[in-house]
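Example record

The entry below shows one chain as it appears in the dataset: sequence first, then structure tokens.
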Amino acid sequence: SSNHRKMSDSYLLIIIGPILFILLYKKMFHSATSDIASYFVTIFVSWLIILIFEARKQNKRTVMGIELPFLLSTLAIGFKFTILPVVIVSFVLYCFLSKSKIKPLFFSFILGLFVLGMIASSGYKASGCFWFPAPICVETPWGLGEQEATRITETVHDFAVSVADRVPTDKIHSISWIWYWAKATKSNFVAFILVLLSALLMLKGILIKSEERHPAMFWLFGIAVSGVAFLLVKAPDPRFNWSYFFIIPAISPMIFSVNILKKSGFGLSYLYAFLLTS
């Protein structure tokens, strides 16, 4: 229906604006970082999930392409491990929507072997470690070795947790770490505000009557929550995937009324960007 189309359109409108501003402000288009790919894969897969559920409602539960979110996210994990939460949620979604439970498991097994083999091959050639930063390495003249791979992983993690030593050492393992982390940089503070906003929106979404709730909403909650949690535990730096922080604010049309945001959705997008860049 046109109302559904506005829902998916509103999602793209709200989420792409701030992401583009971040990329421009941080001058990430001029770098070879694979973080950009993870941003847009996350956006595209989450948008596909909305379209799949809307097509399901229109076509009375029969829809093609339910494996696409899982396929795209799994292939993307070869470029960036931060996409892992998207892969997991997409896999659960694929199993949930598939009429045959054997088909998605078989497809996932074959795809997983292919992707893991692809990552292992490139990892071995680059560092002697099959799935770096995991310290599964073999001795080669050019390789890092298990000890060096472990050291690099720990150094990167500690650097992100301490925000380049801006967080006091005695606060790193306490609950107050989140506040020191949040105020350490402007980007972290914006991410922190987005997490708080997302928590409020989630609460509002959970309270919606089931018959009025968009069927894709909880799946997008799953991607956002698992994505943010994954980053905070493994590498607490929002630049690794800003999209996770914007997913729930971007599905405001599902939580409130499309009519409320139809005219202001574009403005909300740029408000988020203004907070980041001002």
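Notes for this example: The mean pLDDT is 82. The CA atoms of residues 95 and 104 lie 6 Å apart.
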